[in-house]
Each structure stands twice: as structure tokens, then as C-alpha cells.
Amino acid sequence: KHVIAEKPIAGTVAEEEALLDTIEASPRLVAVNLFNRNAWYHHEIQAFIREGEIGDVAVISVSHQTAGLMPTEGHAPEGPPFHDCGMHYVDVARWYADSEYDRWNAQGVRMWGWKDPWWVNAHGSFRNGVVFSITQGFCYGQLAQTKVCNCGLEVIGTLGVVRMRHDFRTVTIEYHGVNRTATKAGP
């Protein structure tokens, strides 16, 4: 049978690589559910970009910063934040750029003496020259009385910009194109 899997597809990188070899040798279709590719808001943003409203895509900035859980309180077996959530944003940036990655730099910060980075920023460029920045962490206002997050996407073009923010309940898109300026919110 064909398979659709959740991430991660195995407990360790070595197991994932071994499984990938098996998948590639199989006649079956195997896909990992990357939920952002099915989200209504990404499809609307992509349509706005295709209409030429922001010109050529130049910069893609993704932020997914939440309070999350403290180390040892969860995220197993997914692992540290970038392995757990960041891989979605690596895919989103690549999707919006419509190109493969070319150059990048990254920095991760370990917090609370934890062995893995709890905050990561990766930035660089794609083969087509589009620049990207991905910031992801589970340490945003960790002990704030009211939990907040900084989650969203900004696509800067040569003529305009489109921004999306969400709080896990409501998504807000701000369209700033050459012919249209609008704001839309939805679940």
C-alpha cells in the first residue's frame, strides 16, 4: 500500500536514512504530511504572489517562536525544536522561493543547560537569488503570565509585501500589493 506518514518518520536520523533507502527502492508512494502545503492561507498568499502584486519574490522570512515546553517536559520522540517544527519552515521557504537552497548559515542556542538548541536561526539564499531567514524556537516568553507567540511569514517582493501571522486560532494576512491592499483573517 502507499503510505502517508507524520514527521518524523523514524526515531533517529540514522533510522530515517535507512528508511529512506528502503522507500526509494520500493515501488510504493510514500509522503510525509507537510500540513502547510494544504493550509488555505498559504494558497491565498501564493495566488496573490502569482498575480504579480508584489513583483518578484526577493526575501522570505519565517518565524515560529512559542513558549513551548521546557526541556524534559515533552517534544519526545520528535526531539529539539528545529527538528520538531523547523523542518516545516524549511519546506515553506523552499516552496515560496520555488528553488533549492544554495548557501546558508545557522546558529542555535542551548538554554537551561539542555543538550540541544532551543532556539535556531538559519539564513542564506536560494539558487535563484531569493534570500531567506527562518527563526524557530520554543523559548518565547517562557514564563510570561500570558503566553504569546511570534509566528508567521513575510514575503517581500520587488514591488510589495505580503505578511501572515497566526496565534494558533486566527490567521491574519496583510496584502500590500501594487493594485490591492487588504487584510483578511480566518481560522
List the helices and strands and how they pair.
Elements: E1 3-5, H1 13-25, E2 30-32, H2 40-50, E3 57-65, H3 81-97, E4 101-110, E5 117-126, E6 131-137, E7 150-157, E8 161-166, E9 171-176, E10 181-186
Parallel strand pairs: 1-2, 3-6
Antiparallel strand pairs: 3-7, 4-5, 5-6, 7-8, 8-9, 9-10
Per the principal axes of the C-alpha atoms, what is the gross shape? globular
Quaternary organisation:
single chain
Give the beta-strand count: 10
Taking the alpha carbons of the first and last residues, their distance comes to 34 Å
The strands making up the biggest β-sheet line up spatially as 4-5-6-3-7-8-9-10
Largest sheet: 8 strands, mixed
Order of helices and strands: EHEHEHEEEEEEE
**How large is the radius of gyration?**
18 Å
State the helicity in percent bands. 10-25%
Mean pLDDT: 89
Provide the low-confidence segments as ranges: none
Strand content: 35-45%
SS-derived structural category: alpha+beta
- Total helical elements: 3
What's a quick, concise take on this entry?
The chain has three helices and ten strands, in the order βαβαβαβββββββ.
Descriptive overview:
The chain has helices at 13-25, 40-50, 81-97, and strands spanning 3-5, 30-32, 57-65, 101-110, 117-126, 131-137, 150-157, 161-166, 171-176, 181-186. It is of the alpha+beta class and 187 residues long. The longest helix has 17 residues, at 81-97. The protein starts with a strand and ends with a strand.
